[in-house]
Amino acid sequence: MTRAIVALALTFCSLSLMAAEPGAPKSIDELLAQTRAVRADEARANAARVQRFIDQLDQQQRLQAEAEAARAAEERRADRLSTEFDANERRLTELQQQLDAKAGHLGEMFGVVRQVAGDVSAVAMNSLVTVQYPQRQAPLTALANSTRLPSIEALETLWFEMLREMNESGKVARFQAPVVAPDGTRSTLDVLRAGSFNVVADDRFLSYLTGEQTLTTLAAQPERRFRRLAENLFEARDGMVETVIDPTRGSLLSVLVQTPGWREQVQAGGLVGYVILALGLFGLVIAGERFFALGAVDRRVRAQRQQLTQPTDDNPLGRVLNVYHRDPHTDHETLELRLDEAVLREIPALERRLPWLKILAAVAPLLGLLGTVTGMILTFQQITLFGTGDPKQMAGGISQALVTTVLGLVVAIPMVLLHSWLSGRSKDLVQVLEEESAGLIAENAERHRV
Amino acid sequence: MSELLRPLTDIRDFVELGGPVVQVLLVVAILLWTLILERVIYYRRAMPAELARIEADWQARGDHRSWFAHKIKQGWVSAATRRIRGPLPLIKVLVALCPMIGLLGTVTGMIQVFNVMSALGTGNARAMASGVSAATLPTMAGMVVAISGLYFVSRFEQVVERESHRLNDHLVTH
């Protein structure tokens, strides 16, 4: 609607303009001229439009040409790339073949490397050198277990560690390491490693637990002499020192820990063992009592021999001498009879309880034999139950058998000794009374008569 | 110096291989031989003079026939016999004990062997060897000590017997 109004308005304007400027043609000529002019205008405009169309066509053609050229270029490039691709493919196959050929040798080498790495890793695992260099275990184990080709670096690590093991096993090294005490406490100590044989801290031998990769102080240490030698090495800074090593790299020292102490041994003896020990104790008490009693009597008799003129009643010799002193003027036969009687009275006191020691000395080995037999019975029972395959099953019975034998002998040997010694003393005293008392009396009597 | 100490180290190794029982045997052997040497020296040096002195004392007495004289002679002979015998009973017992101690060593050594067996099984002969040596060495040592003492025991018994008889004969009574 508005457009129509505008158009109308414009038409009026143009009409009014035509009316105003050129105005309406006054004549036909003017109209013609006018028309001509208009036609010329129109023709120019047409020509311009045609020119424009032509121009546009050219442009389109140029664009097309450009596009076609681009396509051709791309096609050429595609051809080139595809040939290149084919060539590369061929090269790849060739190279792959070469690689396979070369990797064949390498594969064999890698197998060897892995095997050697496994061996070295096992050696390192059990070697004391690893205590000093704990970080060396991981790369070796990794190399032994890896499935990929090893790197140059890994290979170098391998031979370096082999060389280090060789080198360090010939050296005495001092370093700090965590040590577990027998009660389980951990502490970091100065330790000294003698080759790959043993590790000592002060005078204590340490053992290396391969599982935990830690050092432990052995619960049972070897003899004092060896420990002193170990301490020699630990204290020494340079030069030559005499020392000891465990050539089995710890096995001997670990056996030392497993050997049972004497308390456990005695327990293995069982009831029979305790009976033997009780008898031994009983025998010792008797022997002690006799030792002091006979010693006292012996002392008094010696004193009495110095004092023959004043016999006292506190000792056997004095009592025998008193027989004469109370009645010095009896005839000899009576005196002899009285003396014999007095001596006979004294003898039992001197020989008292000594037979007990003899009996104990005889009974103890017999009891030991009893324990041996019961132990063997136990062993044979074990054999009927479990067969002879495992000696550890039989060990209990066998230890009982042997320990009771030992206990029997251990009790019997001192008993025999004590009995012989004490009975020797008592025999001497009896001999003094039986054979010498009369002589002493005679000497005394003669001296007083003169 | 080390050459001079070689026998000592040998002895030490022997004692250590044999275990504590061999140490006991060593002590017993030293004691036994000390006693034996003491007796030998006594019989050689002191005893003849002592017996001569007793005989001289006897000759010096005027009275050789009374009951007193008989008793005195009996007493002197008895005292002399006791001195001549000295520690002979102890020597005898030590000689008798040596094989017993050796047997003790045998059994303790066997115990060691069985301990090793129960710890390591029967496969490890080398570990058992120390127990075996601890079982055999004391047996041998005990036998050696006992045999070395046996001759002297019988010899000394003869001496005691002979000398007391001789003294008894020399102190003449009428």
Walk me through the structure:
- The complex is a heterodimer of chains A (450) and B (174).
- Chain A is α+β, with helices and mostly antiparallel strands.
- Chain A has 13 helices and 5 strands.
- Chain A has helices at 2-20, 28-126, 129-132, 137-145, 152-168, 224-235, 251-258, 262-268, 270-306, 316-326, 332-351, 354-386, 391-449; strands spanning 172-180, 186-194, 198-201, 204-209, 214-217.
- Chain A has a 5-stranded mixed barrel.
- In chain A, helix 2 (28-126) crosses helix 4 (137-145) and helix 11 (332-351) runs antiparallel to helix 13 (391-449).
- Chain A is rod-shaped.
- The termini of chain A are far apart.
- In chain A, 24% of the residues are buried.
- Chain B is mainly α and 174 residues long.
- Helices cover 90% and strands 0% of the residues of chain B.
- Chain B is built from 5 helices and no strands.
- In chain B, helix 1 crosses helix 2 (20-60), helix 2 (20-60) packs antiparallel against helix 4 and helix 2 (20-60) packs parallel to helix 5.
- The longest helix of chain B is centred in the C-terminal third of the chain and has 46 residues, at 125-170.
- Chain B is elongated.
- Chain B starts with a helix and ends with a helix.
- The interface between A and B is large, with 43 and 41 residues.
